């Protein structure tokens, strides 16, 4: 199969506008004859569901949480980028496009990224109209701050709770459509499979998480807006319920999975304290605006700090290594996430880490408090400081924070064309669950932008083109494919419920996470990846033999929910390792130790790897098939990324 | 490990909505003070599962105090003994060795128990659906900076908007009133210029739905404000009442 990205012809800045005109439209009176299924209600899902319902389509929306507003977009802290140039500091659509392409280490599609930058400005307008209380200046206009990987201030924010406020905006738009009966909302429903009719996506099978009922729903198109798969690593900044089941099931039904190895390890998270740890908490990247990252200059001093013999505040300036400022003078503490993470790991591997485990570096606000005053620092970051204090019992106004990298975001996801359609006709992927816009590394404050651009401003146009093509012929669940898929899912559930082994699902999940973190985490090499592949395969065999699943289907059953998710994580983990093995270059968040510059920076191989790796599922325990979409750069020159 | 605690948990177990439910006592041995409260429950659950006993069900998701999924009435207080945090942010260092901890679900007619500690909060959804929005479609809106908003007003709207819909206010209230939650949403939009056109319709619609769901009335005891993990202020309730009564007794064009 040749992957056709459907990238429009013509000059970069005109592609999207011209394309929108060329797309087929659905007549207003015909729109109500179509049903669209939206799975997931984070920024991408809620904005898509609301916008499509406003246009007149009938929408059925699904989320596993008890409310659409609890989707994990809610936890995004720092902000959302937009090329408004309100600060008069030289920003433009082209600069946002350029920064994003460069930040992604030249592994994303030019056309998609430019469209994202174009739509960024509309998102801010839309959110303000909905009543999102962004931070403002005393003059009444919107405030901005700067973020990693950019030299302009283009990030709009709502204290440290930007994701929450944006999601509440999209949720309110969704509620309005529920009230108007244009959206049927199904809370506490988990999608367990995709239903295919005549080669097209035409519905889903879900489990009601309260009653256990297995239901099927039909629609003319299915939109997956189900977020990332970072929980493959067990410990991540994702919510506990975030899972890959919807996209993994879709992958098994024919949707190609692109760049699964591209995972983002976020530099500023609160370090792990023990085996019981259930998740990791992010401290927003915005903190790097004012916080300075450092470790003690020598191993000996670090050792004393770890033993509690020396307090960080007592270490003299000369005995500190502000390693990001030293190595990257022009970007300093605001280098992109992948660079900051790797450098923190390096410092700790070098024996200079702090905290009782030695797996932490300092993020210090003493200078900022001295320069701006405690009140100003509190106004900017108060809630983050409080969050840190709650978890660690240490006061960051008095002591530097201890931070360490953690899995945060997955750039990989289902392969989509310019329309956001996967390789399965009628199946779309929006937001973090697709691979499209961030290449090998996502810049801060760009996830919110992408989720909302996809939902508010891309899918309302591109979906119409597909629906106009297939026509408003009614769809329902009477086709035998629905009954068959329901049966497959029921059989799978019964198989799980019959598993009466000795090892808990959390133990399997934790084991998988340790394998992934060790061999497919911040740094990867061939020997390690090969070892990981063997370990994951063995874990999978053991899982189906020895896992314990309790209870029955017809009740709220967290054990059964977990079983399905962990089984899928294990399979996806193996594909991530395959992809990391295949990509012998380093790029962005994917650091292959075999491919680095003399200074230890990631070294790309544009000659051999300037492509999207899209994997096709070929059957259980059968190697996946690699398809390549070549990345063509007509506007930017590929250079070795430098933040020095 | 040294410093670890041995605790006794009295946990509300209820198989489903129809079951009567009862307290069951569990030993939670060797609990680190660094654990979060929910991690402590994870550890207890792992031990239950190993003994093939049904784990204790509770709602939770982000575990960083923002999604509003977690609940739990701990030793008679929503979200436990500390102020301004959610249960997922509560750490075991707030308890001491040998302590007996009582864990219950939110108790309110409008929040029926689903299983154990998980309750049905869909009443909150229906209240928001009744009017918690500004009626604008996607696209065709003015440039964001064409609507200047005083920083003071914007900050105050933000304070109201930080409500996470967890339901602690209802659980804390002797009347099981949802006034703090509903008024926070009404206030956010009533404070902002964008929210003015629907201000009075919104207040009426949301209050009507709140009453329909079976929440009690507000009698100004203020327990909700004390227990709210996001410190939503009682002032919001005053704003809600003002808008509600204005809408009740005057025609919209007569207000102001």
Give a description of the structure.
The complex is a heterodimer of chains A (644) and B (256). In chain A, strand 6 and strand 7 form a beta hairpin. Chain A has 18 helices and 19 strands. Chain A is 38% helix and 14% strand. The mean pLDDT of chain A is 96. Chain A is α+β, with helices and mostly antiparallel strands. Chain B has 256 residues and is an alpha+beta fold. Chain B folds into 2 domains: 5-115, Ubiquitin-like (UB roll); 122-254, Fumarate Reductase Iron-sulfur Protein, Chain B, domain 2. Chain B has a 5-stranded mixed sheet with strand order 2-1-5-3-4. At the A-B interface, helix 3, helix 5, helix 6, helix 12 and helix 13 of A face helix 1, helix 2 and helix 3 of B. Chain B: GO terms for molecular function: 2 iron, 2 sulfur cluster binding; electron transfer activity; oxidoreductase activity. Chain B: InterPro entries: 2Fe-2S_ferredoxin-like_sf, 2Fe-2S_ferredoxin-type, 2Fe2S_fd_BS, 4Fe4S_Fe-S-bd, Beta-grasp_dom_sf, Helical_ferredxn, SDH/FRD_Iron-Sulfur, Succ_DH/fum_Rdtase_N. Chain B: Its cofactor is [3Fe-4S] cluster; [2Fe-2S] cluster. Chain B: Residues 5-106 form the 2Fe-2S ferredoxin-type domain.
The total strand number of chain B stands at 7
Unreliable segments of 5+ consecutive residues of chain A: none
Gross morphology of chain A? globular
Overall CATH class of the largest domain in chain B = Mainly Alpha
Count up the helices of chain A.
18
Do you know the CATH architecture of the largest domain in chain B?
Orthogonal Bundle
Strand content of chain A: 5-15%
SSE pattern of chain B, N- to C-terminal: EEHEEEEEHHHHHHH
Major beta sheet, strand line-up of chain B: 2-1-5-3-4
Q: Give the C-alpha Rg of chain B.
A: 21 Å
What is the CATH topology descriptor of the largest domain in chain B?
Answer: Fumarate Reductase Iron-sulfur Protein, Chain B, domain 2
User: What oligomeric state do the depicted chains represent?
Assistant: heterodimer
SSE-based structural type of chain A:
alpha+beta
Which structural category do the helix and sheet elements of chain B fall into? Answer: alpha+beta
CATH superfamily of the largest domain in chain B: Alpha-helical ferredoxin
Task: Show the largest interface.
Answer: A-B, 80 and 77 residues
Q: Helix count of chain B?
A: 8
GO molecular function, one term (chain B): 2 iron, 2 sulfur cluster binding
Organism (chain B): Arcticibacter svalbardensis MN12-7
Cofactor (chain B): [3Fe-4S] cluster; [2Fe-2S] cluster
EC number (chain B): 1.3.99.1
